[in-house]
Amino acid sequence: MSASSASPTAETIGAGRNPWLTWAAQHRAILIPYGLILLLLAAAAVRAPGFVTPANLRSQLVLASYLGVLAAGQLLVILTGGIDLSIAWNLNLSAILLTQFTGGGSPALAAVIALGAASLVGLINGLGVAYLRIPSLVMTLGMNAVLAGFTLVYTNGSPQGSAPAFARELAVGRLGGQIPYALIFWALFSAGLIFLLRRTVFGRSLYAIGNNREAAYLSGVPVRGVLVVAYTLCGLFAGVAALLLVGYSAQSYLGMGDQYVLTSIAAVVIGGASILGGSGGYGGAIAGAITSVLLQNVLQIVGIPFAGQQILYGLIILLMLFVYGREARVRE
Amino acid sequence: MLLLQATGIDKRFGGVTALHDADFSCDAGEIHALLGENGAGKSTMVKILCGVHTPDAGEIDFAGRLVAFRSPSAAVAMGIVPVFQELSLVPDLSVAENLFMGIEPRNAIRLVDRRAMRRDAEALLTRLGFSGIDPAAVVRDLSLAERQIVEIVKAVGRSPKVLILDEATSALNRQQVEQVFAVVRGLRAAGVAAVFISHRMEEVRDLCDRATIFRDGTDVGTVEMAQASHGEIVRMMIGRTLHEAFPPRPPLPPEAEPLLEVRGLDWGAELRDVSFTLHRGEILGLSGLEGQGQGDLLFALFGVYAGVTGDVRLRGEPIGLSGPRAAITAKLALVPEDRKTQGLILPLPVGENMTLATLPKIAHGGIISPEAERAATSTMQESLAIKTASMDVPVRFLSGGNQQKVAIAKWLLTEADVYLLYDPTRGIDVGAKQEIYALMRRLTEQGHAILLFSTDLAEVVGLCNRALVMYEGAIAVELSGPELTQANLVSAAIGVAESGRVDTPAASA
After folding, report:
1. Under 8 Å between Cβ of A208 and A216
2. How crowded is the C-beta side of B261, counted as CA atoms within 13 Å?
3. According to a count of CB atoms within 10 Å of the terminal CB, is the N or C end of chain B lower?
4. Whole-model pTM over 0.90
5. How confident is the model at residue B14 (pLDDT cuts 50, 70, 90)?
6. Model confidence over A156-211: pLDDT tens digits?
């Protein structure tokens, strides 16, 4: 149970031989994704020099910020040893509620309803996982199907309404015409999340539960409560991501969340978190989100057809799992 | 005849030197003990001998050839078979499947021959004197002691040339230990070398021909057990003279205030009408045969089990038994049986493990204060003399005794009134044991109380004011004062067990 690999350790990497190698190995969860970013940019610079311009890089970062918010929720759940597959349709439903109610006249109310619904979905996921002990995979997969069906019936197949102005401003607006509000928001959000993980009782509890639920429980960690909060936050962040994406595309449409289950998990995993829970941080996930976005766009820009993009994207995720998986060779 | 020889072994883990220029050798047909304090390097040495760790320097000769094991299975293939304290059995498989894992008998079409496996398992268990263990039983359902025996049988079933027993008898009772020793002596007669690590000195005396003593990561000498005195060995181990094994036990004043009062505690068939009172300043022992409900009693009091009935009062106030969190608030502490899976979170840092049960105390509004945390952990590191490079080292890199100190430190920080301790000194060395005994005494002097379950009878006699001998979930006998002797504990446990069997013929002890 507690055999899940922790952060890279001296034992697995032959400490005491070369201090640089040791340092690199210990920080590989950060070095690898950021190294990958540089590699992708280099590839893009060779094949499509127009890609590596400040303006384009800025818009790539903005796209990464949407995914980054979503990946933050996924990270909280993965740290506990779970996974949230319901974010695809949770995001979609939230986006649709936002545009429908904005069309109905009140953008503020629309935002409250959209974020509230997304959090409620997360809360139900959390209650199911924590109290009914339904495996998160099953709970959230079922939830995703329910939400997909519900959304279809609710919208009659064609979502209505439009994006509220504040969402458009947040998603694509720029401070002084230069600094995207989305990046300012993401920076603040990241700082808050890193603080939450490192400095709060909640953050400590997540790592304790993800590594060893029994020992955490015996130490008085309120395991169920922490799980419920983690899934609820994951739902809330899916709602926030929905708000950003609605702002970006100025509308909501069916299927807008489909790609995000895989990409959010990819961002977390590329960022060095253990898919089994208990280790990883948001610093890595930020790089993971940027990598994931760059990967999709660079593959496209260098002229690989869509099918090839999909195959390469999947292979790179598997490769990352393999690279990080090697540290699990703790022989004890 | 020299069989296995390691020379000049160095091994470092991160910043910690585990072994430096350490030598060890053993002959065919001898039982050789490895002795030493916590973190002296015994476990690291055997893990190098059996391919778990790769040495940073030094060489290993086996049967006259230089060897370098790339994995534990390579060592097993050559005949070096270890049994570790931490168990390697697969809990959801049967005893037979575990015994023959990787060496399953095959039938004509190369599929696992389950019938042959079952038969061979039964034969092996019977031959080694453990016919009481059902080869078809699922390992998860066995007691810790039975699992440890299966582990040993599994190793013996692999026809070892060198059998390594690293604290492999720590969960066994006396009779089971004797049975295991008979097996090991049989192997010795057949020319097998056995390397034995145990913190029970009597067992080492009883079993071993020679002993090599480790201190601070290197070997400090090898002695013939028949000639070496106890004092001499202990001096070599700790480099100083050991005082009295147990700290002096002040008598409990008759007017001592009752702290924990338990009346009519029931939990299914596991706990039956358990009643006792624990006083301020008292250490109350739990004894009896393995698995008679002692562990369940501690868990039940800590609120882990649902459906426990009975009246439990702490300082006169009823407590709800609703879970660890409520128990901690009520100032109860539980140091559980298995520090590796229950007591600690091995991949997390030492400091985070220590403060896990006191997070609300070192935090304001859910935000942890680094100063408060550092203060708490450094106080504990100092007062318990915990050896660690820093508070940020994953706790699994610490030696067994230091790990246990961290597990205890976690509960000292909660400033509990009543400490429920489950075998707190199992598998740790003499020096660390001493420190834990002294700590227990300090706690009682401060007016706290301890409910101690120990498989080590000497501990129960040496530390406790009174002892409750349990049988099948009920308290059978209470011993105190001059009656509290090892002989009486044993005869109470066995006497009760025998009469119990007469009453309930279907019961299996």
Report:
1. yes
2. 10
3. N
4. no
5. low
6. 888 888 899 999 999 999 999 899 999 999 999 999 999 999 999 999 999 999 99
Predicted ipTM?
A: 0.85
Residue from B73, B342, B345, B377 to probe the interface with A (highest A Cβ count within 10 Å)? B345
A158: which residues sit within 8 A by CB, 6+ positions away? A254
Strand, helix or coil for residue B254: coil
For tokens 């190098």, what's the residue?
B48
Using the Cβ of B357 and the Cβ atoms of chain A, whether some distance falls under 8 Å is answered with yes
CB pairs < 8 Å spanning A and B = 104
SS3 B66: strand
CA A196 to chain B, closest CA, distance in angstroms equals: 8
Burial annotation A29-66 (CB, 10 A radius, 16+ → b, else e): bbbbbbebbeebbebbeeeeeebbeeeeeebbbbbbbb
* Beta carbons of A7 and B344 less than 8 Å apart: no
Task: Say whether A15 and B345 touch across the interface (CB within 8 A).
Answer: no
Closest to A262 measured CA to CA, from A323, A314, A316: A314
Which member of A200, A208, A222 has the closest CB to residue B348?
Answer: A208
| Residues of chain A found within 8 Å of residue B396, distances taken between Cβ atoms | 332
Q: What is the DSSP string of B132-196?
A: TS-TTSBGGGS-HHHHHHHHHHHHHTT--SEEEEESTTTT--HHHHHHHHHHHHHHHHTT-EEEE
SS3 B419: strand
CATH class in words for A29-41+52-325: mainly alpha
Provide the CATH number for the domain formed by B248-331+416-509 in this structure.
3.40.50.300
B343 touches chain A (CB under 8 A): yes
- Could you write out the DSSP letters of every residue in A16-52? TS-HHHHHHHHTHHHHHHHHHHHHHHHHHHHH-GGGS
Beta strands B283-287 and B309-314: pairing type? unpaired
pLDDT higher than threshold 60 for residue B335? yes
B12/A contact by beta carbon, under 8 A? yes
CB contact under 8 A, A219 and B356: yes
> What span, in angstroms and rounded, lies between the C-alpha atoms of A161 and A222?
42
Residues recorded for chain B = 509
What band does B501 get if pLDDT is binned at 50, 70 and 90? very low
Sequence ranges of the domains in chain A: 29-41+52-325
Q: CB distance A218–B72 less than 8 Å?
A: no
CA dihedral B412, B414, B415, B419 (to 10 degrees): -60
Q: Do the chains contact at A219 and B53, CB–CB below 8 Å?
A: no
Q: For chain B, give every residue range classified as CATH 3.40.50.300.
A: 2-238, 248-331+416-509
Locate tokens 């040993």: which residue?
Answer: B152
A contact set with B (CB within 8 A): 1-2, 4-7, 9-11, 15-16, 199-202, 204-205, 207-208, 211-212, 214-222, 278-279, 331-332
Residue B368 confidence (pLDDT) above 50 = yes
Chain A closest-CA separation from residue B339 CA (Å) = 9
Interface test with B, best of A219, A224, A233, A327 (most B CBs within 10 A): A219
Kindly provide the residue ranges of all beta strands, DSSP E only, lying in chain A, ordered along the sequence.
Answer: 174-175, 179-180
Counts of helices then strands in chain B (DSSP H, E): 17, 22
The type of residue at B74 is: A
Whole-angstrom distance, CA of residue B297 vs CA of residue B320:
15
What does the block give as tokens for A306? 């869509």
User: B422: phi > 0 → left, psi -120 to 50 → alpha, else beta; which?
Assistant: beta
> CATH fold of B2-238, please?
Rossmann fold (3.40.50)
HSE-CB for B68 with a 13 A CA cutoff: 7
Through-space distance between the first and last CA atoms of chain A, rounded to whole angstroms: 14
